[in-house]
Amino acid sequence: MRIFIIYARKARTDNKFLLKDLAGSGGKMDTVCRFVTSCLWVSHGLRRDVDIYLVLNGPPRPPITIHISGENVKRMDPNERSIAIWIQKSLKGEITKDWKNIQEGIKVSAKSFQEIIKSLSDRPMYVLEEKGEYIEDIEIKENPVFVIGDHLGMPRNEEKFVLRYGEKISLGKQPYFASTCATILNWILDKRKL
Amino acid sequence: MRIFIIYARKARTDNKFLLKDLAGSGGKMDTVCRFVTSCLWVSHGLRRDVDIYLVLNGPPRPPITIHISGENVKRMDPNERSIAIWIQKSLKGEITKDWKNIQEGIKVSAKSFQEIIKSLSDRPMYVLEEKGEYIEDIEIKENPVFVIGDHLGMPRNEEKFVLRYGEKISLGKQPYFASTCATILNWILDKRKL
To answer: Which sequence spans correspond to the domains of chain B?
Structure first.
């Protein structure tokens, strides 16, 4: 099992964003959608061994976390718009700290980044950061969790928290999109047969 | 300079497709848009050393080739919708064998896949294919051209043609999206400082 977490600093936490303006009205929700595609898809289907947490921290009611289980999710397409429609469905109505099922494989809660990290803290955890240890020089342990910031990066206190459990790793000096990082990580794990 | 070519077997060759249904009405135009994003973007801007050829072979008037120059292109965003809007603009009106400028960095013509390949045949050329030589075992020469099929792959005669000039390389046994291939190739070239 591979777990990917994105910390989306500005992504909206209600469904009042426009499908035709995911970047502006959604607080870079396009980035979040591309991230889902990169984590989940191979050429002819879904990666069933991938779990995703989208931690949305934008207005009006942060934090909201959407969980997508590659094993169970159905009727999802890899394009930004169709993923955005699922995110909108997930963000409709009341959301509490308890997980609420949206459809098979998708659930939502008001859990914070730190709560999600804590719940996964028994697994090997890797925080993507240009200044981390270069991935080609280290071993990735089984059942890894990868924590990735969006283009703004994680706030200092959140990064400090996650580093209690995880270590910084890097894909090189070039900063990449969150979705690019997920694609490369999946390829490296495929290569290493993890 | 890195050049990426996608052979999009069903992608529409006029502007009569819906931005809200790129996959269906556009003949998997979403795949083409994601490919552009993967080729061109890093975290805070465009890769200026990348050129892209989108070879569209769907109805009603194939072939049409759109060329995007990373060095010159302006006002483009990395989301599928905004790239699709540029593709629609490019596909408007008459298109002949001569390149027509759409905006700085984007031009279009009725050139075929084989014409494009021929015009680039003085460069080292690599055709992505699961059965090719594994990329980690080979050297990629400077100024490479990468030729990538969509989810349907290239027709046999086109593949045969391109293999006169290029060699098959592989990212492993797992088939990936065209956009995934572009992301991984860019990362490998970054790593090798090519």
So the answer is: 2-191
